[in-house]
Specification:
Elements (H helix, E strand, L loop, with lengths): L1 H18 L1 H11 L7 H6 L8 H9 L10 H20 L5 H29 L2
Helix pairs in contact: 1-5, 2-4
Length: 127
């Protein structure tokens, strides 16, 4: 059960990182402009499935809901729900096996659907 708590802290940290990515990205573009870029776009000249997501999250921080990537609203909902869910789990003292299995069985399909949506929109938007 201690591993599950560590896993929850790790996922919570990752969600915090993704929520703060616009701020981190701006600093990284200033500090390391050569490194902080999309390698797929550099190699192929075409945007990757995730291109524009950081810009969309930055727009959202400023109250602009005009998203360039059509999957970004789903990502924002997933991030918000995941942050709340992990906070709830981190506040609990004990976790049953059923909760751990249920958590896994719900989140794996959600993540696969999110990745599938990114790939589907990318495939249908590229010439």
């Amino acid at each position: 059960m201690n591993r599950y708590r560590i896993f929850n802290w790790t996922v919570f940290g990752l969600m915090c990182y993704l929520a703060a990515l616009p701020v981190i990205g701006r600093a990284m573009r200033f500090l390391l402009p050569v490194i902080w870029h999309c390698p797929y776009r550099t190699m192929t000249g075409r945007p990757c499935p995730f291109c524009g997501t950081t810009r969309d999250l930055a727009r959202l921080w400023h109250g602009n809901f005009d998203f360039g990537n059509p999957v970004t609203p789903f990502l924002v909902l997933f991030l918000a729900a995941e942050l709340i869910w992990r906070l709830i789990l981190l506040c609990r003292r004990r976790h049953s096996r059923a909760l751990i299995v249920g958590d896994t069985l719900v989140h794996i399909p959600l993540i696969l659907l999110l990745l599938g949506a990114y790939l589907w929109f990318w495939y249908h938007s590229t010439p």
